[in-house]
Amino acid sequence: MSYLEDPRVFFAGERTLFAWLRTGLALTAMGLAITRYQLFLSSFRHEDFTLVKSHASFYLGMAFVVLGWLSILLPTIQFRSFFKSLDPVELPPRYRILSSVYVSGFLSLLVGLLIGFLIFE
C-alpha cells in the first residue's frame, strides 16, 4: 500500500489549492483597492471623479491584481496535474473531485475579466 492510497493526501492537495485561492483573492482585493485609491483621494478633496490610468497607484494596483490572478490560475493547473497523476484507488470514494478545479477555474476567469475591465474601462 502506497502512502497515496490514503485519501488525506488528496485532501491535503485540495486544501493547498484553497489556500492559494484565498491568497489570490486577497491580492486581487488589495490591488482593486489600490487602483481605486486615486478615486478615493479625488472624492475626499471634492475634485472631479475621473480615473487617471497614468497614476502610480493604478499600475501598482494592477500589479497586485495580476499577481492575484496568477496565484489562482497556476495552482489550479498544478492541482489538475496532481489529480491526473493519481490512480482511481487513491481517490476518495463518492466525492466530487473536479468541483474544486471548476470553482478555481471560474474564479480565475472572473479575475481575468476584472483585469480586462480595469484596463479597458
List the helices and strands and how they pair.
Blueprint: H1 7-35, H2 37-44, H3 56-84, H4 99-120
Helix pairs in contact: 1-3, 3-4
SSE pattern: HHHH
Structural class: mainly alpha
| Distance N to C terminus | 56 Å
Relative strand content: under 5%
Poorly predicted regions: none
| Helical coverage, percent range | over 70%
Overall pLDDT metric: 86
Number of helices: 4
List its traits.
about 120 residues; mainly alpha; 4 helices; about 0% strand
Summarize the structure in short.
The protein has 121 residues and is an all-alpha fold. It has helices spanning 7-35, 37-44, 56-84, 99-120. The N and C termini lie far apart (56 Å).
Overview of the molecule:
This protein is mainly alpha-helical. It has helices spanning 7-35, 37-44, 56-84, 99-120. The radius of gyration is 19 Å and the shape is elongated.
